[in-house]
């Protein structure tokens, strides 16, 4: 009877095993099939989404003058409310909190995944499915591992061979799943980076009226746009997998283990998670803040290296190599010191983490596994099964008789089976425990990654929020049709104060100060709102009023640092005019019948020459592209004529053609660069050209000819210069006194018109110079009679000598 029950029990265990193993594989097969179906559906959806995206692109984007797709300014303006300024620096430490969640949501849902049907959503879905698949496969592998060892212990050749076959069968989807997870993560990262980069480019490089690239008050913007965006995209794409996969693993492995551990074991497992989680949380340093500081220091070092690359020649003239080396080395050492301190902090943290997750968890796991194996559960199970067996006796009676003869053997097999069963349970559970510890470790790493992501998110959010919250500059607009007081061909400044704008960050600005600016041609509700001028701004010129029509050339003068360029910045629209009654009207571009093309309203040539990367032709037509030049129907002969007019006709021959690409900043001499800048003015042929000491390195005769040429082309000149020799090309003179009160003098050159302010000779540097020159000439003239007498004396002496 004992033999009966033993045999029946073993047989039933075998049947149960078979059922268990086939039923444990069933979900895997279903998942595999489901995965293939879903994969097909996703590919189909991806194609659909591409179609949808391309259809909606017309609405979501527009094409700029260079043929590139850009996000419409209206959408960017609408996004601004999602990026309010950060609170003051002290309270904006990166952390995993509500502020982080809000910043992350703004970046993800406004920029990285702007629509639910964006391609990124489908990549994310596919990524998630593969992550789930990998977890399921891990459980299957753990089970299979146990089975193979069990069959080995049992010396079951057929079972072992079957297990090995299944092992290889599982390898195929496992390898595919792993490589797809890595691939989709990289694809996701690059797509996030592309979305962000394009968004930031569109926002940062906005042209008039906002000039964000010129006005954004952040140090090292290049670091934000390049390294930080890349790091953020990599981090968020990685973090999704790093969080989702171990979380799934934890859930699944815990649920699998719970079957073996029973209720008490499971509760203990969760108590273990909770306590160790608390310990690790307490031991975690502020990784977010550390990451943000590292990014800033990296930016400072990168900016330094960039500066040396840019200003290499100037540094070489000063022989400043060792000084620059000091600066760069200091910046680098500061960065390295910080990185090293992070490493040190990490060591202490990783010790704790390793101990807790690898050793504490494993020990707890061993203890929990031992409970069912060593104590009661197996025995209770065996008793329950024995009762079941007795009911099944009649069904298996024939089989029992067959086995009666080999009772000893069966007993032997039976004890082997018990050991094998225990080994299987142990191996499976051990593997699950190891995977669980691994998942726990990765979750902890992910926590660290989330903290670092918080730091990067704060940096990225700072950039986006600064760009979105720059107070708008007043727009220069077209005149209203039929308005007799408005002239599209003139400059009008009325009661304008010129101040250095306050450059604090958005979070420092309580209420952005904006002047009252009357802009013609706009609806009332679009006008800038009047407010008090910014108290932090430094006044350079007070209450400036002038009206310049076309053909009325103006020279702006005054000693260094009085604010001449500042006036040009206001005229060009880079700085806002301030003052309660400030009004600024700028000439608008319009079609010129003689030129048969549009003439820009204003074109500015700055003090420092600028040469973009590109061809020789590209230098002349900048900021137009070469493609735009050819499309406009203008010819290379015309450009050659322009170069002749600035005495650079030899350049094409010397450099080897129009298409040659060089670092023009280094190739052209100082004077050549300035002549090239004048060539640009002639190419664009604006109504007004603001020339900010842009011919200081050009010889006087060439300078004069270029000025005459510009006037012949109908370009009205606004020249900023200290050279009295240029006065003769202008009708008006604006002198900034620089006495600290912002006073100025306006006069007509060659006339003393009633109504125009009198020239205060004692205070104007240019007039001072004229007076000096007149005095010296008068002195020379007064000596002319003496010189004539002396000449006659000398001639007389010469005749006498000859005779
Ligand atoms: N972005 C700025 N931030 C702070 N100060 C500024 C800024 N731009 C100009 N300034 C200051 O404003 C003053 C006027 O500068 P501006 O360039 O207009 O002088 P300038 O009259 O053109 O001098 P120069 O003849 O030497 O070119 C200077 O003292 C300068 O330091």
Automatic annotation (TrEMBL):
Record Gene3D superfamilies: P-loop containing nucleotide triphosphate hydrolases (3.40.50.300)
Molecular function terms, GO-annotated: ABC-type transporter activity; ATP binding; ATP hydrolysis activity; long-chain fatty acid transmembrane transporter activity
Annotated GO biological process: fatty acid beta-oxidation; long-chain fatty acid import into peroxisome; peroxisome organization; very long-chain fatty acid catabolic process
Coiled coil: 767-797
Region (Disordered) location: 505-533
SMART domains with a match to the protein in the record: AAA
Secretion signal, residue range per the UniProt entry: none
Superkingdom of source: Eukaryota
Pfam families: ABC_membrane_2, ABC_tran
Entry keyword set: ATP-binding, Coiled coil, Membrane, Nucleotide-binding, Transmembrane, Transmembrane helix, Transport
Residues of the ABC transporter domain: 524-763
GO cellular component: peroxisomal membrane
Entries under CDD domains matching the protein: ABCD_peroxisomal_ALDP
Recorded family membership: Belongs to the ABC transporter superfamily. ABCD family. Peroxisomal fatty acyl CoA transporter (TC 3.A.1.203) subfamily.
Protein name: ABC transporter domain-containing protein
């Amino acid at each position: 009877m004992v033999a009966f029950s033993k045999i029946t029990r073993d047989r039933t265990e075998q049947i149960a095993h078979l059922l268990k193993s086939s039923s444990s594989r069933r979900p895997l097969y279903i998942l595999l099939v489901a995965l293939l179906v879903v994969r097909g559906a996703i590919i189909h959806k991806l194609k659909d989404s591409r179609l949808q995206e391309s259809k909606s692109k017309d609405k979501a984007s527009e094409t700029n003058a260079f043929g590139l797709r850009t996000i419409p300014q209206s959408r960017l303006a609408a996004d601004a409310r999602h990026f309010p300024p950060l609170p003051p620096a002290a309270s904006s430490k990166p952390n995993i909190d509500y502020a982080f969640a809000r910043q992350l949501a703004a970046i993800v849902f406004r920029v990285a995944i702007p629509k639910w049907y964006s391609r990124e959503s489908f990549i994310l879905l596919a990524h998630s499915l593969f992550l789930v698949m990998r977890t399921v496969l891990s459980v299957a592998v753990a089970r299979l591992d146990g089975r193979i060892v069990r069959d080995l212990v049992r010396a079951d050749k057929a079972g072992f061979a079957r297990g090995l076959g299944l092992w290889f069968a599982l390898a195929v989807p496992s390898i595919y799943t792993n490589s797809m997870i890595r691939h989709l993560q990289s694809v996701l990262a690059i797509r996030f980076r592309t979305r962000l980069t394009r968004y930031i480019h569109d926002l940062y490089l906005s042209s008039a009226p906002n000039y964000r690239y010129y006005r954004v008050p952040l140090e090292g913007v290049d670091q934000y746009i390049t390294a930080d965006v890349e790091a953020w995209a990599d981090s968020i794409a990685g973090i999704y997998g790093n969080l989702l996969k171990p979380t799934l693993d934890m859930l699944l492995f815990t649920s699998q283990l719970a079957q073996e551990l029973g209720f008490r074991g499971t509760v203990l497992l969760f108590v273990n998670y909770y306590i160790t989680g608390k310990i690790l949380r307490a031991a975690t340093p502020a990784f977010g803040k550390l990451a943000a500081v590292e990014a800033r220091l990296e930016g400072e070092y990168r900016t330094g290296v960039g500066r040396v690359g840019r200003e290499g020649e100037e540094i070489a003239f000063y022989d400043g190599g060792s000084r620059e080396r000091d600066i760069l080395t200091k910046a680098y050492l500061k960065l390295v010191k910080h990185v090293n301190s992070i490493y040190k902090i990490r060591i202490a943290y990783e010790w704790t983490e390793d101990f807790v997750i690898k050793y504490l968890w494993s020990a707890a796991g061993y203890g929990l596994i031992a409970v069912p194996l060593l104590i009661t559960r197996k025995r209770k199970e065996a008793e329950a099964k024995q009762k079941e067996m007795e009911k099944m006796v009649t069904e298996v009676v024939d089989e029992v008789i067959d086995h009666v003869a080999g009772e000893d053997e069966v007993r032997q097999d039976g004890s082997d089976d018990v050991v094998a069963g225990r080994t299987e349970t142990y191996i499976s559970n051990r593997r699950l425990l190891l995977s669980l510890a691994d998942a726990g470790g990765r979750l902890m790493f992910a926590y660290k990654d989330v903290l670092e992501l918080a730091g990067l998110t704060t940096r990225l959010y700072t950039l986006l929020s600064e760009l979105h919250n720059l107070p708008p500059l007043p727009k220069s607009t077209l005149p209203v049709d039929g308005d007799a007081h408005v002239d599209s061909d003139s400059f009008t400044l009325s009661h304008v104060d010129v101040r250095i704008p306050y450059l604090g960050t958005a979070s420092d600005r309580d209420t952005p100060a904006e002047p009252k600016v009357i802009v013609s041609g706009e609806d009332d509700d679009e006008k800038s709102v009047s407010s008090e001028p910014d108290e932090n701004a430094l006044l350079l010129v007070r209450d400036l009023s002038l009206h310049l029509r076309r053909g009325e050339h103006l020279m702006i003068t005054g000693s260094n640092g009085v604010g001449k360029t500042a006036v040009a910045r206001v005229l060009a629209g880079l700085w806002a005019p301030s003052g309660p009654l400030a009004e600024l009207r700028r000439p608008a571009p319009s079609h010129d019948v003689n030129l048969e093309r549009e003439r820009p309203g204003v074109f500015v040539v700055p003090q420092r020459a600028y040469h973009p990367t590109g061809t020789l032709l590209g230098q002349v037509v900048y900021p137009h592209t070469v493609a735009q030049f050819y499309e406009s129907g203008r010819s290379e002969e015309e450009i050659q004529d322009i170069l002749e007019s600035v005495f650079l006709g030899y350049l094409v021959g010397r450099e080897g053609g129009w298409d040659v690409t060089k670092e023009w900043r280094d190739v052209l001499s100082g004077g050549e660069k300035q002549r090239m800048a004048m060539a640009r003015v002639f190419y664009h042929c604006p109504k007004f050209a603001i020339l900010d000491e842009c011919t200081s390195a050009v010889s006087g005769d060439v300078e004069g000819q270029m000025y005459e040429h510009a006037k012949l082309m109908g370009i009205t000149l606004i020249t900023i210069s200290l050279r009295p020799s240029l006065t003769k090309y202008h009708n008006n003179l604006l002198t900034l006194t620089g006495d600290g009160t912002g006073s100025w003098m306006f006069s007509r050159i060659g006339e003393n018109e009633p109504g125009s302010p009198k020239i205060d000779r004692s205070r104007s540097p240019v007039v001072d110079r004229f007076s000096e020159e007149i005095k010296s000439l008068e002195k020379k003239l007064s000596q002319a009679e003496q010189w004539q007498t002396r000449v006659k004396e000398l001639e007389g002496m010469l005749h006498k000598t000859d005779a």
